[in-house]
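PROTOCOL LOG
Step 1. Enter all chains and additional molecules of the complex.
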Amino acid sequence: MKIKSSTPALPAEEKLETYVLRLYVAGQTPKSMTALANLKKICAEYLEGRYQIQVVDLLKNPQLASGDQILAVPTLVRRLPEPIRKIIGDLSNTERVLIGLDLVPLK
Amino acid sequence: MAKSRTQLPKSPTGIQGLDEITGGGLPKGRPTLICGGAGCGKTLLAMEFLVRGATQFNEPGVFIAFEETAKDLTKNVASLGFDLKDLIAHKKIVLDFVYLSDSEIETSGDYNLDGLFIRLGHAIDSIGAKRVVLDTIESLFSSLPNQHILRAELRRLFLWLKDKGVTAIITGERGEGTLTRQGLEEYVSDCVIMLDHRVSDQVSSRRLRVVKYRGSTHGTNEYPFLIDEDGISVLPVTSLGLHQTAPKARISSGVARLDSMLGGAGYFRGSSVLVTGTAGTGKTSLAAHFAAAACLRGERALYITFEESPSQIIRNMRSIGINLDQWIEKGLLRFQANRPTSAGLEMHLTMIHKAIKAFKPQVVIVDPLTSFIIGGNESEVKAMVMRLVDLLKMSGTTSLFTSLSLSGGALEQTQVAIAGFVDTWLLVRDIEIGGERNRGMYILKSRGMAHSNQIREFLLTDHGVELRDVYVGPSGVLTGSARMVQEAQEQAALMIRNQEVERRQIELERKRTTLEAQVLALRAEFAVQEIASMKIIGQEQAEDAQLAQERTDMGLSRKADTTPYKRKGASK
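Step 2. Run joint prediction.
Step 3. Record the structure below.
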């Protein structure tokens, strides 16, 4: 990626980036189900066709927790585009999620 | 210390002194809070707990770091001789750095800390850890929003740690008016240890206090502790009791005359001796004698000096005929020279402690104690000396302290009020008489032995310290040349007296001779007279016989009746 993030003049190309999102959960708890559902809804609405969702269950793969420095669950990690961003919680607050994913500029 | 059977199980820290204070270590299977300000050694204490657990007690440990990266931590503790890399490679320790940054984390809705639980659980299970350190978990508060959730989760975390049965240390930064900023003590309440780092008179000292220990007795005082190349050492003040055994053996003070003053045998082994005196009264010389005597017996002596360099002491002592060099070469004498201001009192004490542990001397000399007094810290010095005396007594080491008393002040008062717990107290003082300043010495006290109450004159000769009787007479106590003059006078008087006696004896002899001669003469005279008298008596008897004969003859011639006459004559 050659585009500097500080350059505001190229919004069209930025939109073409694929979002790689990883959701860390701990087992099939209601909270993690809610988070996944919320995430899918947001992605469908704002990132149609250019997103990937990976779900990591830490109960199955505990060693993965340290890779993305996960403490809280659920945690959503935006792997791409860089920089890495994290959102913790069940993603019920859509606005915060959009800010977290840098889809809506901070006012 | 006797432990009751019902006391809760403890997990030894292996940290010098801490196990003594806590009566065996931290509560096993429970979390312990270690709190204190920045730079007071929380992380280090926690790390030492883990490392010692892994190396000495076969209890692997997990270190979750929230503040320092694994790399930094490894480097930092390497300076204390802990090889974390090796321990990690041998699966004795897991070091996990949890990176927290508030700028990257956005929150949307409800969450919990299962991620941390899982991470921790995974780490614990991977090596079968028995010990866990969370350093510093309060960092979570600054990076994760929603304190209510966080507090609830922390409470759950500590319960979970208890369930897991791991002995945990949680560190926390000290807060305003509370033990920790976020009030962690509310959740971790089994054992709370507070660390402190104080600076007084530009000298810093670290202290440790067990604030709380549920279900166990513990030392409640503030204990100084030290961080050096061997990690942390805590110094319990007075090993919680007076249980030292008192040896009956005696050892020489190095000055024969002083030994005889001390009941003829010198100091008790394992006792503490205090030598006080004004400047230049020979305290160091006495100390050097004592050290040399110990070395001569083949014992080890540790000489801790705060005012003179070792070479200076050696040179000066050579001038009074004590050769300390030879003992240093033989490894029996060791000097430890430090400036009193080079470290805090605790640091000094610990250095002495370590030197004693390493060198194992039978005799320790501290010269002088008074150097410790900087500003108004007498009470601290007293506490420190008390601990030192205690330490030495515990190890059966005989100690000699010198203390400088200020001229003009009360002589029988030490600046460091330690007179109460020394066993033998020698006082060297100067005596000014006849334009001279001489040294006098006496024993102020000496527990457990009959000791001389005499003042002795204390002489520094080229073959060491000598003690002389002082002259005590009608003109007071005399020392130095006044004593010599007095002694000369007495000598003269004695000579005159002796001559007089001799003269009288001769006269008596002469009288006797004369008398005996007279007796002889008289006896001779008497003998002459006796002979003369005998002669006369003989003549008279002869005359009587003659007369009688003549009478008989005359009677015969007159034909007288002889018989009655004869009878008459015989009865005459």
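Step 4. Note key features.
Chain A is about 25% helix and 20% strand.
The helical segments of chain A are 11-14, 30-46, 94-100.
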